[in-house]
C-alpha cells in the first residue's frame, strides 16, 4: 500500500502537480539533511 502511494506521489511530482501528502508517515517526512557534513 505504501509503495502505491509513493508511486502515485512520484507520478504527480513528475508532472509538476505534487504538493505534499498530509497523510505521509513520519519517517517519510523526516529530513535527511545533516548540517556541516563532510564527505
UniProtKB/TrEMBL annotation:
Family listed: Belongs to the class I fructose-bisphosphate aldolase family.
Q: Which protein, by its recorded name, is this?
A: fructose-bisphosphate aldolase
- Keywords attached to this entry: Glycolysis, Lyase
Pathway, according to UniProt?
Carbohydrate degradation; glycolysis; D-glyceraldehyde 3-phosphate and glycerone phosphate from D-glucose: step 4/4
One Gene Ontology term from the biological process aspect of the record:
glycolytic process
This protein's source sits in the domain of life called Eukaryota
Give the range the annotation lists for the signal sequence: none
An example molecular function term from Gene Ontology annotations: fructose-bisphosphate aldolase activity
Give the enzyme's main class according to its UniProt record, as a single word. Answer: lyase
Q: What is its EC number?
A: 4.1.2.13
Which species expresses this protein natively?
Haemonchus contortus (Barber pole worm)
Amino acid at each position: 500500500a505504501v509503495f502505491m502511494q509513493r508511486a502515485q506521489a512520484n507520478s504527480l511530482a513528475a508532472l509538476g502537480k505534487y504538493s505534499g501528502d498530509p497523510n505521509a508517515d513520519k519517517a517519510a517526512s523526516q529530513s535527511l539533511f545533516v548540517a556541516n557534513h563532510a564527505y
